[in-house]
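We were asked to recover a plausible sequence for a given structure. The inputs and outputs are reproduced exactly as logged, with field labels preserved.

PROBLEM: sequence recovery
POSITIONS: 367
GIVEN STRUCTURE:
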């Protein structure tokens, strides 16, 4: 995967990009706001971390002993881990939490407590997904192997006609794969295609870190509860699996409804020149969708990722500012006659995503 050979046409819609950045810069300047985490974001960080570590401590310290309350703790941890991933970890690994790189690295390392790996995540998400959104063969967020078809450019199989039904169960398994095999496969892949080296990491160092942090994660999340929580071992394992199912389903529903939709596009470069015909910023408008913009509680929980358009255009700005920026982006896009996709509710977005899965599951016309 030689990503450097691909390029975007910067001459297209240059005025839109210039005006949009001027208006966003003026917003922060006139309102005397930082682009990074503010007091509201710091308070939010404490709250979502408490959703992850609070229930855990209640169980392992023996404060909660009733099995149903212990089960409730695992459920809260599932949503809490997703909230940490949406908000704190996500912003930090984008360099958007703090102006200080060390702070971003420390805060981003919270990902280890979620079972993930910051190095792999930054390559998959920051480099591949944000650069080549919805591009088959480049954006790994739409690559689920053969079992799911997320793009009309991907190979079709007969069982895809049922994917709008079985996809939701597979979404729940996403972080189960993440904490077991996915990170190891990714690390080897990124080593082989040179992305790991471009990220400033050696394979040996990254693999050593991956093995150690995975081991520590399992000690933290599973071994200690198995040893100290006074319930049968099989309940702890079951609750652990349910926690990850909640986490995986929650994360998948938010990220997939932002891109695999009926109104989003799936661009591809010219096969001869390896060049995309449009500006990168325009592709972000074409491949990304917002949803539930009026739901403040929902936006709080998912780290402003219902404002995916703003996030993709300005990934280095803390998500706490996206609701304010959305008006600027929407009005500027409309002024230049460019798309600005948005669904009024999250449920409406899920329904459209299901319809898109069903459409992608049908036999392509050319077949």
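RECOVERED SEQUENCE:
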């Amino acid at each position: 995967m030689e990503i450097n050979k691909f390029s975007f046409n910067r001459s297209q819609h240059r005025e839109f990009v210039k005006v949009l950045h001027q208006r966003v810069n003026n917003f922060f300047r006139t309102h005397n706001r930082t682009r990074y985490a503010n007091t509201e974001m710091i308070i939010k960080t404490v709250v979502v971390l408490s959703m992850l570590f609070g229930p855990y401590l209640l169980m392992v310290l023996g404060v909660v002993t009733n099995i149903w309350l212990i089960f409730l703790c695992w459920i809260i941890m599932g949503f809490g881990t997703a909230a940490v991933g949406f908000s704190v970890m996500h912003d930090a690994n984008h360099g958007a939490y703090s102006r200080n790189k060390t702070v971003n690295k420390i805060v981003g390392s919270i990902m280890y407590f979620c079972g993930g790996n910051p190095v792999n995540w930054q390559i998959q998400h920051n480099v591949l997904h944000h650069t080549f959104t919805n591009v088959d063969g480049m954006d790994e967020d739409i690559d689920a192997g053969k079992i799911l078809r997320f793009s009309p450019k991907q190979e079709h199989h007969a069982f895809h006609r049922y994917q709008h039904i079985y996809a939701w169960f597979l979404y729940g398994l996403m972080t189960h794969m993440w904490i077991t095999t996915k990170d190891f496969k990714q690390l080897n892949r990124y080593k082989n295609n040179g992305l790991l080296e471009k990220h400033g990491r050696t394979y040996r160092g990254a693999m050593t870190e991956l093995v150690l942090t995975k081991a520590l994660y399992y000690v933290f999340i599973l071994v200690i509860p198995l040893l100290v929580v006074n319930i049968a071992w099989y309940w702890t394992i079951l609750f652990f699996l349910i926690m990850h199912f909640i986490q995986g389903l929650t994360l998948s529903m938010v990220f997939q409804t932002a891109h695999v939709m009926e109104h989003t596009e799936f661009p591809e470069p010219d096969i001869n020149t390896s060049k995309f015909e449009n500006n990168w910023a325009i592709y972000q408008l074409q491949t990304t969708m917002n949803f539930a913009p009026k739901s403040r509680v929902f936006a709080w929980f998912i780290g402003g990722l219902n404002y995916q358009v703003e996030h993709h255009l300005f990934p280095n700005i803390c998500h706490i500012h996206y609701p304010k920026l959305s008006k600027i982006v929407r009005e500027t896009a409309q002024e230049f006659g460019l798309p600005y996709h948005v669904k009024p509710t999250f449920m409406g977005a899920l329904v459209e995503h299901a319809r898109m899965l069903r459409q992608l599951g049908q036999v392509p016309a050319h077949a």
